[in-house]
Design brief:
globular, two-stranded antiparallel ribbon, 15 strands, 636 residues, 36% helix, eleven-stranded mixed beta sheet, 21 helices
Length: 636
């Protein structure tokens, strides 16, 4: 949709004016000129024919490059659009305007203040300039001055990068204040997300964002990206290695001869490809080209890194054929590519045309590039292969950490519902109340969701048993956990006197996308099935190691759709996991009274409700929880 232009007869408001870029990292000045096709007021994008802004129009403009003065506004709104695709476009576009500045700055400064007060209390110090008796930071100094003084000697989180040799240090002109700003943002991200040593791309990504944005905008951008990491960046060492192995796979399928040459020299090894998937081409491409990649990355995510990487390798090998015989190892390859990419005749537009298959006369053959779904499943297949083979390339920091995680919290929801036409009764969680259940869930959800609270959104105790109400309450809820009670009349042996007791059976599923009615399956490999009680156990999806991927077309891949039946939403049922005979890992009927659970392809789960030969069961209480940030209660 198109935002209405401001009325020329009234003064512009904060909703009319677009936030301008600022180089926090290097403290340099921007060319504030806004070229034709763009505007410093809403609407930011101006179509030649006056059409409303569409995603396709935006993508085309991003590939041609965003004006430096508008990058802050465009980059953040891109991230919000990518992470929250079902929101009203007005919400995406609002992040481009000055109307958001105060709220984002205030939230970030409050977080820093909370961290400082907490650290001060933990260390039992009594600096008068840090906190008063009520635990509030005093106002003699602003929070940035306080953190600069307190964190001066604190190490910058490196997220797995070698301390002192991080890629961002290759960005020339970083000031002392800029490095302190980077330190503050990374420490704040670590406090909120807890992903230190698990996301090696984060320091470089944060530094690049700071070349265009203020601290609060960078913090908001990376925090939002972390809640959709399958789109933006790997969050574990093994997943990082999976990205690198997937890139090697794609190179071999698309350009076999080039891939063989690169393999012989170790260029496609995991340790070599960190230039792409850890450093984001920093130190190889000039900064202006890396920022062009960021224009696209903030909306399209990590797929652009694969596209640009393939295009660079193919074009450099073609244009530097006479140098190839002198290159004997990966270090030589990257060093000579750096000289080529920093030459005055280097044209990054040619790289992007190659990457996106828009070719001139000299490039008639289109790159056959895999769709995003295929690419994500190749990554998962590579991760699974490494895990099965015991490959240490990915490290040992991954998913199964037992029950050492802090339990997910419970959000304080003040919602009340009318009972018997008169009395207002508060809605309280039941199935997620036991600590051991929330601790198990914390150990199963993606790493970046472990510091969140469960927010009860739907319960059959109050909202009735209806998929219509279920869809209504869950619309736009990206991450959700369904917990349900199995009504099983079979007693469970338990007491020493021989009497049978009923141990509650609580099962469920985690959905990585919003539940909705669709003729197509949706979700991704982050979805999982679980039994929360008794004997908690989780079954995560894994790819078929025998799967071969035809990167030239999706149709062949879709023939294996049963393996990738993550989420199905219909008017008459919802389900997760599927089989050729129609059975499901977990399926719930339209009035949420009956369920079915069978072993499902890709999940290899047990029947969630127990080992009974009957796959059907009756449902007691059913609750659905969203996930909200602990720091501010906002949905992730």
């Amino acid at each position: 949709m198109q935002l209405a232009p401001p009325d020329p007869l009234r003064p512009p408001t904060l909703e009319d004016l677009v936030i301008q870029s600022t180089d926090t990292l290097r403290e340099t000045h921007f060319d504030m000129k806004v070229p034709d096709g763009w505007s410093a007021t809403v609407p930011v994008l101006l179509s030649p024919r006056g059409q409303p802004e569409t995603t396709d129009l935006l993508k085309g403009c991003l590939r041609r490059g965003v004006p430096p003065a508008l990058r802050c506004a465009i980059w953040l709104s891109n991230v919000i659009q990518a992470v929250r695709p079902h929101q009203d476009p007005k919400d995406w576009h609002s992040y481009r305007t000055l109307a958001k500045v105060q709220s984002l700055d205030h939230a970030y400064e409050n977080l820093l203040q909370t961290m400082v007060v907490g650290e001060n209390a933990a260390s039992n110090t009594s600096g008068s300039n840090v906190a008063n008796g009520n635990g509030a930071v005093l106002q003699e100094e602003d929070i940035f001055t306080i953190t600069e003084r307190l964190w001066k000697d604190r190490l910058i989180p490196t997220y797995g990068q070698a301390a002192g040799s991080e890629a961002y240090r290759q960005i020339s002109g970083i000031t002392e204040r800029g490095e302190m700003a980077l330190k503050r943002v990374l420490i704040a991200l670590e406090h909120v997300l807890g992903i230190i040593d698990h996301a090696p791309m984060v320091p470089t990504l944060t530094a690049l964002l700071l070349t265009t944005m203020s601290e609060s905008y960078v913090f908001t951008s990376v925090r939002e990206m972390a809640h959709d990491t399958s789109w933006f960046f790997p969050i574990s060492k093994r997943e990082h290695a999976g990205y690198c192995c997937a890139f090697r796979h794609v190179m071999h399928r698309l350009h076999e001869q080039t891939a063989e040459y690169l393999d012989d020299r170790g260029v496609l090894d995991v340790d070599s490809l960190h230039h792409i998937f850890r450093d984001l081409f920093v130190g190889i491409l000039p900064l202006r080209a890396v920022q062009r990649i960021m224009d696209i990355y903030t909306l399209e995510g990590s797929k652009v890194l694969f596209r640009v990487g393939v295009a660079l390798f193919v074009l450099y090998k073609r244009e530097s054929a006479e140098k190839l015989v002198t290159i004997s190892n990966a270090q030589d390859w990257w060093q000579t590519m750096k000289h080529w990419a920093n030459h005055k005749l280097f044209n990054f537009d040619v790289v992007l045309r190659k990457a996106y298959g828009v070719h001139g006369r000299a490039m008639r053959t289109q790159i056959r590039f895999p769709s995003r779904n295929i690419l994500q499943r190749i990554i998962k297949a590579e991760e699974w292969r490494m895990q099965m083979e015991g490959d240490d390339a990915g490290g040992s920091d991954d998913d199964n950490r037992g029950f050492h995680c802090t339990p997910l919290g419970l959000a304080n929801r003040d919602e009340q519902i009318e009972v018997s036409g008169r009395v207002m009764e508060a809605i309280h969680p039941v199935l997620a109340k036991p600590t051991q259940i929330r601790q198990a869930l914390a150990s199963w959800v993606p790493i970046t969701l472990r510091l969140t609270n469960l927010d009860l959104l739907y319960t059959t105790n109050y909202h009735g048993r209806s998929l219509d109400m279920f869809y209504s309450r869950l619309q736009n809820v990206k991450h959700s956990i369904i917990l349900l009670e199995v009504l099983d009349e079979k007693p469970t042996p338990g007491s020493n006197d021989g009497r049978a007791i009923h141990e509650p059976i609580i099962i469920g599923m985690y959905a990585s996308q919003a539940w909705r009615i669709s003729n197509q399956t949706y979700g991704d490999g982050e979805c999982f099935l679980f039994r929360a009680s008794p004997n908690p156990k989780c079954w995560k999806w894994h790819p078929d190691p025998a799967t071969e991927f035809d990167l030239s077309k999706d149709a062949d891949f879709n023939s294996n759709a049963i393996m990738h039946q993550f989420m199905v939403g219909q008017a008459g049922f919802i389900s997760m996991g599927g089989n050729a005979d129609g059975s499901c890992g977990l399926r719930l009927n339209e009035d949420l009274t009956r369920g079915e659970s069978s072993p499902a392809s890709g999940f290899d789960n047990e029947p969630l409700h127990g080992g009974s030969s009957n796959s059907f069961f009756s449902i007691g209480l059913l609750e659905v929880y969203g996930l909200v940030r602990q720091i501010d209660g906002k949905a992730v």
